[in-house]
Structures are given as structure tokens and as C-alpha cells.
Amino acid sequence: MPATASPPSLRPPLKWAGGKRWQVPHLRPLWLPHAKMRLVEPFAGGLAVTLGLLPERALLNDANPHLINFYRWLQRGLKTDLRMENNERLFYRQRTRFNELVANGQEDTAEGAALFYYLNRTGFNGLCRFNSKGEFNVPFGKYVRIGYTHDFTPYKEAFRDWKFIDADFETIRLARNDFVYADPPYDVEFTTYAKGGFPWDDQVRTAEWLARHKGPVILVNQAGHASGSSTVTSDTICIFSTLRDASVATATARPPRRSSPPAIYDAAQHQHRRCPRGDDSTRPRARRVRRRETTNDRDTLWRRRS
Fold this sequence. Notes:
about 300 residues, alpha/beta, Adenine-specific Methyltransferase, domain 2, 8-stranded mixed beta sheet, 3-stranded antiparallel beta sheet, 7 helices, about 25% helix, disordered C terminus
């Protein structure tokens, strides 16, 4: 499926590591036939995909309560006069203030949302990281210049019929015709994105949970996992579930070399292919590396050959 031009949309308000905005043109052809469905993101992150597709209805979940609090305040039309500057001393002062709010149970306030935004825009590389005490501990980012927003009212209308929750993804009650886009945290050494982390067992739990869904699913992930003497490492790990009348798509976690289009697996036709890209007929090959046994033996693990 060719990439399509993007309609006017809102930019993601946060700088988010591992954002998937670049995938939106490739995802839109898969989404449009199902556009009346509810879009569900169990790992919402920076909202690049949801803001790119702009569904009428969406259920957006993330394990990070501070992130969800920020989105809920945008839903209310957040305006803030918080001092925001690309200044190291101010950054650490505001970081201390944010952690004070967290310690006092006041992080769900408008001030907490504004501080979270400022720390995200000013901190290193768009990271969101907390220590064992639940304190935000990302260092200053040292950007040349940063554009800050104080008026978030343009997001209010877009967010009107979207529901934001922070819960374990497996507790989400999916309707049969929900369209699920899942981009779980990567299986890498850094797992302190939220309290409790996201270890390999959660990767497996995600695959099994998605395999049980009867509607269309898009799963995107990058992982490298070592367990005992066996190691599974790849640029892209794609777990496909055989779903009736549904397409399952996967794409690399970051734009690959030469902007190769994402891989597509059409479960209805049992075909694995690449999204067409202009007149370029060169396609990276994909090969099946092994069969992964699960409870219902419906999941297949693929590796993209670089």
C-alpha cells in the first residue's frame, strides 16, 4: 500500500523518544477502511499516530500517569503562565518543583501538567524517566532553541471524544471491532519508563493479549532479548496473529536506512509483503526465523533481514 499525503493535523505536543509520526502515511491506508471504528492505543506515548490519524473516537492508555494527566488537561483546554526557558538552572528548579508535587500527591494539577510539559521539552532527548522513589530524573537537554506552547486550546476539540486512562494494558476492555495500534516499550536495558518497568514477560503478555483480539491489530516493536543460552535479536520483531477479516502490520521502531517502507502482513490473504514506495522496486526481504509456541499456537515470529 503506498504512503498517502497527510491531511491537516495537530503536531504532537511533546518531544517523545521513539515517536512514530513518520509511520502515519503508511498506516493511513490501513486505517481508512476502518475509520468508523474506535482507535485503541494501549501504549499511547507521544500520540503521534492518533494525532496523525485523527479518529472520531479513541481509547488511549499509558502506564505513565503524568503523561495521561497532561493529556487530560489538554482535553480541558489547558492554558498556563508557567515560566519556560531553555535555561539549565531554571530546568532543575522546575524539576525539583515537579518532584515536590509528586511527593505531595499534587501532580494531577494544572501546574503538574505544565511542569511535565516543560520538563519534557527541555530535558535530554525527550526521555521520560523516573527513579525508584518515583522522581523525574532526566537531565537538562542543552538544545540550541526550543519553542514552547502556553495555550493548548487547539487540542481541546480533537480530544473531545477521546478517553485517556492509565492502567495495565491487559485490563483494557476491547470491543470486537476496535482497531488496535500497539507500540509497546522496547525490550532494552532501559525499562524505567514507568514504575514496574516493562520486562520480557510483558512483551510476551502483550503478544498473547493482542492474539486474543478479534478485530484489526497493528503491532510495532523493536527488541533484543537474552534468556539463558538463547538470544533473539533483530532490527524488527513482528508478531502476527491470524485474525479473521483483519490486517496486521508491523514497522521498524525508527526510520530504517533509505526510508524503507514498513512490512505488511495481510492475515486475510496470508501474504507477507512490503508497502510500495513510489517507483522503487527494491524491497528488503523478510524471512521466517522460527515458530513460537503459545497457548493457542497462533503467533509467528518474523525477523527483518537488514
